[in-house]
Amino acid sequence: MFNNYHLHYSYSKYYFFPQVFRYTGYYGGFLFWNFVIVPALAEKRRVVWNVILGLMLLAFFWGLFGITDTWLKGYLFYHKTADYVYNLVFKLNVIYALWVMMMLTFYSAIKYSAQYLLGNVDKIQAKYRILTRNCIIAIVVVMIVTFLMTLSDFPVELITCFVITAPTAIGIYALSFYSLIPQTLAQNKGIFIYLLKVAGIMIIIGLPIGFITNLIFEHSEAVFIVFGFNSGAQILLTAPFAWIVYKRMLAGNQEITYLKTALGRSTADLDFLRSQINPHFLFNALNTLYGTALQENSERTAEGIQRLGDMMRFMLQENMQEKILLVREIDYLNNYIALQKLRVQTSPDIVIVLQIEEHLDGLQIAPMLLIPFIENAFKHGISLREPSHINISLQTKDNTLYFDVHNSIHPKVLNDTEKYNKGIGLENVKQRLILLYPNKHELVIRESAKDFFIHLTIQLK
């Protein structure tokens, strides 16, 4: 412009130093805004004072840009009056100062929003499942790029295309992960059907996007250009990218599941081997005691040790199964009853009667289901000072088990630790019966002052 008016032009006077002062002041104002005013406002400290500082910063920018513009546009003084130049320059720079403050506010909003989003990814994702970590990062990037494009005087057309296309891409990506791809895979369809769904969505959202574009550009050609560019980008780029990422995520999850399963299996095998070590030494100890009892002619002790070993073997090997042969459950009952008889067989006033069927035709039952009733009978039905009786009957007919236990009852002494534990085992077995044999069992319990009676029927098939 200086050459157009045939004026002498000094690069340092009319460009370099004014620009240095302008950008130095611009940078200083940015630092003051970013590290003094905004943090105080964010923490709600001295709000009024910091608002005043913000207005003073606006005035500073206005003066800075106005003064430097009088040098950058110094050619105006040679063909216009000084009052006209100052009036023109400072009017224009009021708008520019307001625009700079708006950009600084926009920057601060992006900064604090990004810090909040990135610092609370897990909380946000837990509340809004569609906002994955990648989506949140993408939102932050779009905000920053939009700010930089606005600050760098990019063409309005390019900024508009980016502002429309980028958020749409984030939405399509999130919707694909949350709904479109899982639904397509659940229907055993391929990527072509998925892309058709995305195309349908783009047609639906094309109407509001076209309306917004028409308001900005005010000519129909721009509407079709933006719609075509946005739709093509989503269908050809965003949608296939989301499909690839989702498939890789599925493959990764399957591999993790397989590794967890393998690790769990290995851990279970190791725990099982460990569980076998201690019982192995315990069985050896029982065998030693059994041999010692035979050497000392303690036949009752030897028999008790042998039956205890058989019961422990049952507990370790068969108790963990869902179902076992009924005959194995009865073997355990017989061992327990025989072990208890060793304690009371010298007492003539204690009568134990067993009526247990021997031919059971391969019927199965949940393990340890009957023993609590017999334990309860021996615990509360035997007294070494008073006459006692236990009658146990077990029969099967048409795949139905009939089990009866009838025993005497004796009042417990005050210091008996089992006095208040009566019925706990029975309550547990009631719950097991409800879970294992719903609508296939009947349990009747009757109790009087001197007798306790249970009658249990189970449909085993």
UniProtKB/TrEMBL annotation:
Keyword Kinase listed: yes
Signal transduction histidine kinase internal region domain boundaries: 268-345
A cellular component annotation (GO) from this entry: membrane
InterPro entries assigned: Bact_2-comp_sensor_kinase, HATPase_C_sf, Sig_transdc_His_kin_internal
Transmembrane portions of the chain: 20-41, 48-68, 88-110, 131-151, 157-180, 192-217, 223-246
One Gene Ontology MF term: phosphorelay sensor kinase activity
Keywords, sorted A to Z: Kinase, Membrane, Transferase, Transmembrane, Transmembrane helix
Lineage, uppermost ranks: Bacteria, Pseudomonadati, Bacteroidota, Sphingobacteriia, Sphingobacteriales
The protein, known as: Sensor histidine kinase
